[in-house]
């Protein structure tokens, strides 16, 4: 036996203690298994199991292996809590995979998220070690605890961290029984190993972080939590007051664009810049030009080197990343378009009811897939109900104003389909219409709490025991993220009725949540027959959106939805639909203004100024008010709605249009 290994064997502490009091051996002489024996809070680890062909295809650790002198022959993980449920180790796992496939965009987001959290730990003086978990580029942050921490304390920290960093896999921190991760230096099934990037491994063997430090970290993360609505978000760093956008932007958009070097999280700031530009109607060419100089778009000029520095991207890489992120920003922009002002709750009762109701709704979708997938009508109802739940969560209001056109555009359906779905959901007791549409105001809808009339079971604890505020807001953020992914993954030109259909979109979105699915499993999750599921998967495979997997079907690494939409002939359908719906709104608002003028008394009617003095404009002193030209009339002096629609379609009512419609002479 080599001398260094023998020395470790003689001085190894008991594995159940989780902390070594002997640090005579330099870290350079430690093997992965030597370090694991000193770190593991338990006297056993979990290891991978080879399949019948000797391969390690599944990322699971089903076998128990006793901690002893001999290392396992397959990769292993250590549990973070001891047998009593007290956490001795913490691992923040930042993953850049989507449906089991590495996404370059998400992986860079994971690296930025890791560095952002590492920076907070440095400011709080919490010793930690940053590792690259494998050859794919994932990140682990390890923290050892002096005296341990309770499951409740760690769970609160996990929720706060996940609310700040979307790429964080926080499930292991919420599971004191089996939550674990591969320790530093441990091998990975792909042949690589966990590599230390920053920090000292000796610090993990002599822990200094306490439960009080974790409570302070939770407080900092709660304060830094991004707002659910983009309009309420704040820059992640100092801003350059000299920055000026070439085209109009919202206040929050200008703040993100002016964030120096992208702030503390360059990838998050960069996407917020794209989202602001998409909401303001910018084009890709304008965004690409602005990305060359805007301080907040640093992410699209340089990349993180994992050494607290950044290096320039090649022009081809920068453009490809910008195009992918721009397509995603446009999807999110369409989702956020109907959002009104958010409501700051005076107490947390209403928000707690909304969160509980949405949780119950998602549970019903999961446990009763047949109800929501048995027909095309049911699938449309599921999407519309999800959209209403999303609006309620985002605004913090139990009742939201939602027009059928807004809801239809959010989920990629037609307005008639959205109208029928709303009526059916109200009849089935899932929604209640609080107010009818009137004039230019949309109808108001509200979710019915619990969706059930069954009596509640009497328990020894209070029936409505409220969550702590921080936990409530963290859960709200998590639910908003879940609903956003469901709505945006299935919203595409290709998944409209003239394309592959709405169920194909739901299937594609479902594959984002699983690394692979068999036909029977997908059918059960979708609530449809295996034959129907096979047909949908066949259509997706035809356009190379999915690929064959050892365990069924998986998403393709490259997104070919745009290409498939062009082949099918539906490219641009949702954009065209949005324009048509906006034209319908403009014609209706124009006619309502005309009706108001006709019903007003002679002295209250606006004066008929000369035709050359009647440009359209927005009154800056009264936001939202508009001076309309005279509505077109037929030869019988009745409103000519067809001509009005043609004028709107031509853009002649646009205040920025050079050739404006000036109406008939007074």
TrEMBL record:
This protein's name: Uncharacterized protein
Composition-biased stretches (Basic residues): 302-313
CDD domains the record matches: AE_Prim_S_like (cd00525)
Region (Disordered): 225-245, 300-320, 621-642
Organism: Cryobacterium frigoriphilum
């Amino acid at each position: 036996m080599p001398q260094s290994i023998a020395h470790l064997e003689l001085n190894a502490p008991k594995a159940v203690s989780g902390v070594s009091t002997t640090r005579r051996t330099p870290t350079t002489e430690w093997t992965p298994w030597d370090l694991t024996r000193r770190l593991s809070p338990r006297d056993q680890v979990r290891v991978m199991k080879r399949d019948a062909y000797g391969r390690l295809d599944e990322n699971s650790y089903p076998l128990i292996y006793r901690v002893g002198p001999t290392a396992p022959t397959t990769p292993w993980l250590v549990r973070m809590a001891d047998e009593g449920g007290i956490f001795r180790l913490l691992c923040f796992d930042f993953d850049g995979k989507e449906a089991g496939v590495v996404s370059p965009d998400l992986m860079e987001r994971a690296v930025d998220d890791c560095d952002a959290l590492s920076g907070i730990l440095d400011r709080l003086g919490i010793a930690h070690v940053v590792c690259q978990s494998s050859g794919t580029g994932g990140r682990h942050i390890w923290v050892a605890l002096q005296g341990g921490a309770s499951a409740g304390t760690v769970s609160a920290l996990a929720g706060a961290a996940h609310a700040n960093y979307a790429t964080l896999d926080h499930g292991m921190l919420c599971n004191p029984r089996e939550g674990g991760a591969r320790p530093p230096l441990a091998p990975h099934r792909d042949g690589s190993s966990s590599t230390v990037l920053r920090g000292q491994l000796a610090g993990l063997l002599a822990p200094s972080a306490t439960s009080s430090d974790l409570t302070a970290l939770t407080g900092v993360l709660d304060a830094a939590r991004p707002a659910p609505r983009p309009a309420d978000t704040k820059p992640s760093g100092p801003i350059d007051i000299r920055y000026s956008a070439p085209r109009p932007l919202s206040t929050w958009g200008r703040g993100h664009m002016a964030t120096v070097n992208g702030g503390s999280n360059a990838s998050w700031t960069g996407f917020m810049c794209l989202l602001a530009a998409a909401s303001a109607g910018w084009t890709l060419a304008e965004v690409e030009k602005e990305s060359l100089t805007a301080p907040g778009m640093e992410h699209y000029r340089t990349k993180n080197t994992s050494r607290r520095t950044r290096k320039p991207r090649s022009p081809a890489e920068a453009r490809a990343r910008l195009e992918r992120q721009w397509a995603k920003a446009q999807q999110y922009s369409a989702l956020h378009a109907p959002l009104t002002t958010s409501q700051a709750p005076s107490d947390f009762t209403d928000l707690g009811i909304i969160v509980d109701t949405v949780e119950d709704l998602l549970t019903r979708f999961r446990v009763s897939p047949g109800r929501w997938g048995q027909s095309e009508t049911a699938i449309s109802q599921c999407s519309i109900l999800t959209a209403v739940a999303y609006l309620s969560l985002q605004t913090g209001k139990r009742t939201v104003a939602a027009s059928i056109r807004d809801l239809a555009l959010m989920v990629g359906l037609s307005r008639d389909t959205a109208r029928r779905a709303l009526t059916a959901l109200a009849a089935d007791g899932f929604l209640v219409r609080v107010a009818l549409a009137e004039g230019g105001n949309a109808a108001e809808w509200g979710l019915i709490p619990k969706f059930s009339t069954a009596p509640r079971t009497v328990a020894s604890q209070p029936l409505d025991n409220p969550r702590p505020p921080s936990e409530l807001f963290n859960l709200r953020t998590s639910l908003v993220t879940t609903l956003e992914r469901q709505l945006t993954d299935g919203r595409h030109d290709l998944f409209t009725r003239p394309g592959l259909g709405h169920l194909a979109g739901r299937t594609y979105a479902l594959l984002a949540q699983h690394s692979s699915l068999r036909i029977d499993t997908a059918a059960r999750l979708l609530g449809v027959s295996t034959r129907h599921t096979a047909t949908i998967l066949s259509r997706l495979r035809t356009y190379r959106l999915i690929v064959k997997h050892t365990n069924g079907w998986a998403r393709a690494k490259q997104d070919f939805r745009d290409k498939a939409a062009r082949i099918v002939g539906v490219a641009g359908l949702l954009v065209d639909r949005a324009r048509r719906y906006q034209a319908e709104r403009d014609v209706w608002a124009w006619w309502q203004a005309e009706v108001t003028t006709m019903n007003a008394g002679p002295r209250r009617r606006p004066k008929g100024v000369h035709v050359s003095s009647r440009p359209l404009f927005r009154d800056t002193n009264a936001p939202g008010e508009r001076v309309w030209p005279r509505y077109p009339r037929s030869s019988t002096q009745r409103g000519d709605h067809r001509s009005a629609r043609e004028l709107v379609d031509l853009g002649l009512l646009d205040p920025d249009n050079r050739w404006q419609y000036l109406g008939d002479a007074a």
